[in-house]
Amino acid sequence: MKNRMLYITTGLFIALVILQVRCATPQYVIEKSGAQLWGESCVRCHNTASPSTFSDVQWDVAVKHMEFRAQLTREEAEKIVEFLKSAN
């Protein structure tokens, strides 16, 4: 019973450390604008479309999809969609 509690406590501690590291915003994301991130991230696989190509709602959906597919951080996705909506 004592060993089980030790394993659970250790596992929770490791999980919290991993979450904290993953949740930290990388410095390059802080320093770059949404336009820069959009150009760098999206051009890897796409001919970048004009922000006016899609509506705000469509950009929300597209960026949410690409957050997963392109492994964007939440902060990158938020900056990119903010840029696309402001330029729309």
User: N- to C-terminal separation?
Assistant: 60 Å
Main sheet record: none
Helix content: over 70%
From N to C, what is the helix and strand string? HHHHH
Tell me, what's the shape? elongated
Provide mean pLDDT, rounded: 83
Helix/strand-derived category reads mainly alpha
Q: Which segments are poorly predicted (pLDDT under 50) over 5 or more consecutive residues?
A: none
Number of helices: 5
Cα gyration radius (Å) = 18 Å
Strand content: under 5%
Number of strands: 0
Account of the protein in words:
The protein has 88 residues and is mostly helical. It contains 5 helices and no strands. The protein is elongated and about 60 Å long. The N and C termini lie far apart (60 Å).
Attribute tags:
88 residues, mainly alpha, 5 helices, 73% helix
Summarize the structure.
Helix 3 (34-42) crosses helix 5 and helix 4 runs antiparallel to helix 5 (74-87). The protein is built from five helices and no strands. The chain has helices at residues 2-23, 27-31, 34-42, 56-69, 74-87.
Secondary structure: elements and pairs:
Elements: H1 2-23, H2 27-31, H3 34-42, H4 56-69, H5 74-87
